[in-house]
Amino acid sequence: MTPKRKRKLYVIVTLVSLAAVAVGLTLYALRANINLFFSPVQIAQGEAPMSRSIRAGGMVKVGSVSRDAESLDVAFTVTDFVGDLQVDYQGILPDLFREGQGVVVVGELQDDGRFRAKDVLARHDENYMPPEVAQALEEAGYSPADFQAKAAEVGQQRKDDT
Amino acid sequence: MWGLIHKLGSPKWFYYRSAALQPWCWGVATVLLLVGSVWGLVFAPADYQQGNSFRIIYVHVPAAFLAQSVFVAMAVSGLVFMVWKIKLADMAAAAMAPLGAAMTFVALFSGAVWGVPTWGTWWIWDARLTSMLILLFLYLGVIALRGAFSRRDSGARAASVLAMVGVINIPIIKYSVDWWYTLHQPASFTLTSRPAMPMEMWLPLLIMVVGFYGFFIALTLTRTRSEILRREANTRWVKALLEEVN
Fold first, then answer.
1. What is the pLDDT at residue A158?
2. Domain extents for chain B?
3. Shared-domain flag, residues A97 and A49
């Protein structure tokens, strides 16, 4: 490489590194704002503001969903397996909403510590599988969380069988 | 070694050598895309939770891969152009940019369509979606910057610098789902680990991904070749070539 090209390469590398450091520091400083939601344990520790619209996220606790027979009122618990958050919601839930699944709720914290949601968004995990595999797993007594490790196993078994 | 690089950097040499390669790239890409779409959209099993809307993955994931890869390719071309003054690299970068922008748009649009039935919203300002939107603006910025100068060389340098600095956004997109809480789930399909789905689902996805890359290579070859003709229109070899055709 000629000295001129080398110098140019150094200038570019320095420029890009400095820009990367600047962006990195900015993102680090803003990390609390970039996080889409507060987890239940953060809310329990008082990190989330009261009576302001916030988002909370976690898993819908298994067995916690209770629906009102007369209206669209529904109550459930969102958990991160450390803290719990009681959520009240009135409206239609997304199709993927179910117990043991991830969820993001938008709304306000009430004085009694309950969360009044005006929107419920379903979060899904990165695992996909055909319904037969899922059903076979459920019958074998696995919860959705351990599905994936098992799905590979079942797929392998199927291949061995044929 | 240096001899080969200088040959590669010669537009004329590239124009003649790539002629034979071009139909193969288009052929392979077309076959893979046809096989992948029919397999993915018709024969692959539906998901246990999402049903058929899961099939959007066969467009969404390859488009998102390409959106990021094209930007990296553009930044590398920009570096080669700036440091080694190889004009061919700049022609390739100019040829790639619109495809990258289009793929970013496809990824955002298919994601929005997918978000409505699964998440219950078409847009949310989470880190993954926002960084992807920034990528679209970066592409548009690179394209606009190139056209904003009356001297082509100035436009090319400005576009190269923006591409090289903008590449910082790529790791942010990739790791956004790991660094922050997002609505978007982590990656199902990566180079490094086993896919989070059974083979009858990921094999068509792999074919689609390879097909999208094939399409990118084929389109970039074709567009770079026409860019070469446009920029070298006043050289003797292009004039001779045109006389041959007429």
1. 56
2. 68-232
3. yes
What is the β-pairing status of strands A84-90 and A115-123?
parallel
If asked whether residues A50 and A114 sit together in one domain, one would say: yes
Beta strand pairing status for A102-109 and A54-60? antiparallel
Higher pLDDT, B27 or A155: B27
Please indicate if any CB of chain A lies within 8 Å of the CB of B15. Answer: no
Helices (H), chain B: 2-8, 11-38, 57-84, 87-118, 127-147, 152-166, 169-179, 199-231, 236-245
**B41-58 pLDDT, tens per residue?**
999 988 888 889 899 999
Q: Between chain A and chain B, how many beta carbons pairs sit less than 8 Å apart?
A: 121
Matching residue, tokens 């320095």: A14
pTM, entire model: 0.88
Across the interface, of A12, A34, A124, the residue whose CB is closest to B180 is A34
Round the CA-based radius of gyration of chain A to a whole number and report it.
23
A142 is in an annotated binding site: no
Residue A61 has pLDDT above 90, yes or no: no
